[in-house]
Amino acid sequence: MRPTSFPKRFFWARRALIVMTGVVAAATLITAAPTHVSADTGNRPAKQTYRFSLIARGFASPTYVTSAPDDPSTLYVVEQRGLIRIVRSHRTVGTFLDVTNKVMFDGERGLLGLAFHPDYAHNHLFYVDYIDVHGDTRIVEYRSADGIAVPSSAHELLLVKQPYPNHKGGQLVFDHRGLLYVGMGDGGTNPNGGPTAVGDPENRAQNPNSLLGKMLRTDPTKPGATWQTIAYGLRNPWRFSFDRLTGNLWIGDVGAATWEEVEFRAANKIDRPANYGWSRYEGRSTYNKAVALYGGTEVVFPTWSYHHTFVGRGGGNCGVVGGYVYRGTLVRAARGRYIFGDLCSGTIWSFQVGKAGRKSKVTTMRGFVPSLSSFGQDANGELYALGYANGGLYEFVRR
Predict the structure, then answer these.
(1) What distance in Å separates the CA atoms of residue 201 and residue 203, rounded to the nearest whole number?
(2) Fewer CB within 10 Å of terminal CB in the chain, N or C?
(3) How far apart are CA 289 and CA 87, in angstroms?
(4) What pLDDT does residue 314 have?
(5) 193: three-class secondary structure by DSSP
(6) Among 235, 340, 338, which Cα is nearest to 288's?
(7) Model-level pTM?
(8) How many CB atoms within 10 Å of residue 379?
(9) Residue 161 falls inside a structural domain
(10) Would you place residue 47 in the very low, low, confident or very high pLDDT band (cuts 50, 70, 90)?
């Protein structure tokens, strides 16, 4: 069921997934295979001592929240239209960056990602990912002064031409070595192709000559550094993160018509190219048997996937929102659990992590975040979530 608060502009709207009668179009979805299941607890939340609590609102189409590495008291909320808001003590106190004149704010396009350099306290460098007025991806470095971005300091690191208006990825994350990672979607599908159009029609995710459908990384402060591809076969890795304790990589890769995926890559394998299977596979199911996987990569199947037919309090599922392994101190009962959710249902799940990925059953958190667009983490490892439609900022707290 499409929730009534679901914004028409948001970037994961799926024409073929949900019918206007309010009934999930189950006939268009394949039968669940035993290698995937919905959340183990179904619609019944497990007994838990934590939740996400609304602490601020008034943000316009928020897409991400984070803090600088040295200052957990200040949060930065990214708005899709091209603004980054400064939040202290649950109140918006100013604007950090304004690139509204550079951004195409439409559907899945806009200002999508923000990352502060690990040495931000000294070099004052930060990075943004946005879709420009021509519809292409740009990753740009800025410098700040006196706590505000300096517009004239803009230095472009990467320009990626985009063929269609959807599947942009957009997350930027640093690892413990100071390497900057970006998740690139597959470039999307022709919107004029109709609801039966084949995903990734030009097979960009498996094409080594395309940057789309990949995870890339670089050292942005090293002169002459280039971008390296460390993952292939991604459809739309909207949100991903590194476990701040182990360095393991967790990816929420938005699925097509049926399966949403949580991917895992151990820290000691990140330097070896992984292939997450799109568009030959969606989850563990064959999506397009005509697609051959790019050779020289290790095929990696999801550590967890869930089906669109599950209906939660906020409606039916449509797009996974990757989260974080909680390593904060305020909610001790959740430490070591990977926390993630779904855009349309607003449902939030978690599971205990282990050396090989998911270690426990998946449990459903009580409550939900309407039109959940992103999770975020501050410098202390405390977690936050954003509601796209209500402009809400939520904090992870004990019940």
Answers:
(1) 6
(2) C
(3) 48
(4) 59
(5) helix
(6) 235
(7) 0.90
(8) 17
(9) yes
(10) low
